[in-house]
Amino acid sequence: MKDIVRIGVVGAGAIAQLAHLPVLAKMRGVELVGVCDNDRPKARALADRFGIPDTFTDIEDLLEIHALDAVVIATPNHLHEPHVLSAMAAKVHVLCERPLSLTSRGVERILAAATRADRTVTVANNHRYRTDVQALSRFIHGGELGKITGIRAGSYQFKRQGEGWRTRRAESGGGAFLDHGVPLLDLALWLADYPDPMRVTAHMDRARGSGAVEDAMIAQLECGSGGGGGAFVFDVSSTYVGEEERWWFEVLATRGSARLAPLRVVKELNGRPTDVSPTGAASRESAFIQSYPAEVAHFLAVVRRATEYEAALDQVILHRTVEAIYKAAEEEKEVRL
């Protein structure tokens, strides 16, 4: 087991600045050895801020660092797949921001490359590592709420100005649903033990033009066998006009229900609904922020082989479902998987 894990960060955007670099800089047993971004002055400023020795504008140069163990990929979406494949070719472990690729075929290529290189690829699905989500998972997988019959989730976000590549579909892969819906979809499928997606319907609103991304999406997914089935509904907007932004996630089950932010769990006891929420759940307002250190700690444990590595096979299912949702919205008809 390695005492020190040498890590490089590829991409110096918001998620690297606000999450990955601050978390990694404070982690015991981590040595940040390089920052890579096509904006060298920005990379240099971040390197100076976090005491990182080297900066690069080309990932291939970063990957040549002696004894580099792992990289964090936090580049624009369309670069995730080629950057992960480069890391696999250099036999370096990867923590990659979602989406792992813009296509399910791309995810399959990455998983095959990881197998050949005998290296790990972890997807930064940080919601899975939230303290409230972990508590909810224990209720669900302990069988206390019965079988999942449905999940209702959504995210309404104010319009942001000047988001560059995120507004161009060829680079982002999608708009409101890819940014805000995919994390909810992954969380729903993960909590339900990735049941078999059967069919989807969807409606999206977007500006005119073949290269435009959607501003809003409503998608319904019907699932079959697995840990939980039923209908999952996702409602997202990136141009919301209202008093405040909103995020919600609610699980419906045969013997109870639960919702997040804050965590509330209601269970049927003696024929009556009873609040069985964990003590202190209402005060866990920082569960989202806490998810990033937990996510990185898990990744480091995988790299050190201190915890079992599970290949991200579920991401193939996720991306096939995402492709079906976009197809259903584009063609305005039900799509069966």
Description of the molecule:
This protein has ten helices and 15 strands. It is α/β, with parallel strands linked by helices and 337 residues long. The strands form two sheets. It has a nine-stranded mixed β-sheet. A six-stranded parallel β-sheet has the order 3-2-1-4-5-6, with helices on both faces. Strand 2, helix 2 and strand 3 form a beta-alpha-beta unit. Helix 1 packs across helix 9 and helix 4 runs parallel beside helix 5. The mean pLDDT is 94.
Number of helices: 10
Unreliable spans: none
N/C terminus separation: 42 Å
Radius of gyration: 20 Å
Shape: globular
Relative strand content: 25-35%
Instruction: Report mean pLDDT, rounded to a whole number.
Output: 94
Strand order of the largest sheet: 14-13-12-11-7-10-9-8-15
User: How does the major sheet shape up?
Assistant: 9 strands, mixed
Estimate percent helicity. 25-40%
Report the structural category. Answer: alpha/beta
Q: What is the oligomer described by this structure?
A: single chain
How many β-strand runs? 15
Order of helices and strands: EHEHEHEHEHEHEHHEEEEEEEHHE
